[in-house]
From TrEMBL:
Location (main, coarse): membrane
Bilayer-spanning residue ranges: 29-48, 60-80, 86-107
Alphabetized Pfam families for the sequence: COX4_pro (PF03626)
InterPro entries assigned to the protein according to its UniProt record, in alphabetical order: Cyt_c_oxidase_su4_prok
Name of the protein in its database record: Cytochrome c oxidase subunit IV
Tagged with keyword Membrane: yes
Membrane disposition: Multi-pass membrane protein
Gene Ontology CC entries for this record: plasma membrane
Protein species of origin: Parapedobacter pyrenivorans
UniProt superkingdom: Bacteria
Alphabetic keyword roster: Cell membrane, Membrane, Transmembrane, Transmembrane helix
Subcellular location(s) of the protein: Cell membrane
Signal peptide start-end: none
Length: 126
């Protein structure tokens, strides 16, 4: 019985599953996330607040794209989705696509409400 258990654990030690995350990969992903966050802060504090770039849909699209890229790195590496089976990855990807669709719908709805109800007399602007 002990030899059967030993044979089972030997298979896992030889890398039958996935290679997992090494310290080097963890630090590499950490610095990618740090660079993306620094880029977001640079855009917000230097470019937008400094008046170099105007606030608008372009800046929002850049923020959303950078945030989704950071979300990919977090989910793929720190939540180990990159090392899962194809079926599980696709089931999570479908949900992710619905989230993207939801973001697009909310931006569209917000833009519509901003342009059509901005001057409605019973809604006081603060």
């Amino acid at each position: 019985m002990a030899s059967q258990h030993h044979d089972h654990t030997v298979g896992h030690e030889e890398g039958q599953h996935h290679e997992g995350m090494t310290k080097g990969k963890i630090w590499r992903v950490f610095f990618y996330l740090l660079a993306l966050t620094a880029l977001e802060f640079f855009i917000a504090l230097v470019l937008v607040h400094g008046g170099i770039v105007q606030k608008g849909i372009g800046v929002n699209v850049v923020y959303i794209a950078l945030t989704l890229l950071k979300a990919y790195y977090i989910v793929a590496y720190f939540m180990h989705l990159k090392f899962e089976t194809f079926g599980f990855i696709m089931s999570v990807a479908v949900v992710f696509l619905f989230i993207l669709y939801f973001i697009a719908l909310m931006l569209t709805e917000g833009g519509y409400l901003n342009t059509h109800y901005h001057s409605f007399p019973s809604w006081a602007n603060p």
